[in-house]
């Protein structure tokens, strides 16, 4: 008998657009011989499933069920593809834990911590072979904090919402005159902002997931952007960025990154597929951590999909592994 899977998408942030695109791809790639898929859209004021007749059926939040053809549907598990809040910050994970429904992504604590870039860096910074850029984490947009940034950090630096994703609200600052505008932009997206000194090097992104007790580290993708940095436009506009999978690294670099990536996955107690972004510093080759995404994009051209294909695996096989793992 096929298991019933809720494919959860939508969300409360600007990343909902990306989430819906990811869900549209996941929906077509999941093995329908194994699973019945029900796409659940989560919006702030409405959680619903669109049944085969085109009618929106509200989700009963008392037990996370839906009605279709007068039949009550409950779920064996959840495929979470909701980027941002509430799918990536731990809120949904906590709800599903209370409902005793397994899901494909990290638990509430890991999700909440990894959504906070500053807290994540504090946890992983003692991993051997991994480096973090000097940074400041701000909780208020005040003249005093602006002055702290100018006095304590060396230009250039990146200013970004601490809990954001898809590079929304992010700026690269080259002069002191640009600092306040960048802080205003970031604080418009979040009440915490992270400012990091610039690391000169090549940017990569690497996917990881666990099968049984083994962490599978996928081939890294090298990000070569025509923009100043890998911002929202660079991520989601065709032709702006060149993505090379596998990325151009020596065998020594590949092995070193693989060891570090696995340590990050285990240290943060990750679950399901995650993606770590990092720099290889120019001249030194040091690995500098950028951030980790615990609900990475799953569009047809997304980095994870490219990396899965690079090891000779189909996306359908990959999704089956992810789904089956949540019941172990």
TrEMBL record:
It comes from the Bacteria. GO terms for biological process: cell wall organization; peptidoglycan biosynthetic process; regulation of cell shape. Its cofactor is Mn(2+); Mg(2+). It holds the Pfam family Dala_Dala_lig_N. Its main location: cytoplasm. Keywords: ATP-binding, Cell shape, Cell wall biogenesis/degradation, Cytoplasm, Ligase, Magnesium, Manganese, Metal-binding, Nucleotide-binding, Peptidoglycan synthesis. Mg(2+) 2 binds at residues 291, 293. It is an enzyme of class 6 (ligase). This is D-alanine--D-alanine ligase. Pathway: Cell wall biogenesis; peptidoglycan biosynthesis. The keyword tRNA processing does not apply. Cell wall formation. InterPro entries: ATP-grasp, ATP_grasp_subdomain_1, D-Ala_lig_Van_CS, D_ala_D_ala, Dala_Dala_lig_C, Dala_Dala_lig_N, PreATP-grasp_dom_sf. Mg(2+) 1 binds at residues 277, 291. The gene is ddl. Residues 122-324 form the ATP-grasp domain. GO terms for molecular function: ATP binding; D-alanine-D-alanine ligase activity; metal ion binding. It is found in: Cytoplasm. Binds 2 magnesium or manganese ions per subunit. The active site is at 15, 166, 302. One of its GO terms (cellular component) is cytoplasm. SUPFAM superfamilies: Glutathione synthetase ATP-binding domain-like, PreATP-grasp domain. Belongs to the D-alanine--D-alanine ligase family. It comes from Echinicola strongylocentroti. Its EC number is 6.3.2.4. It catalyses: 2 D-alanine + ATP = D-alanyl-D-alanine + ADP + phosphate + H(+).
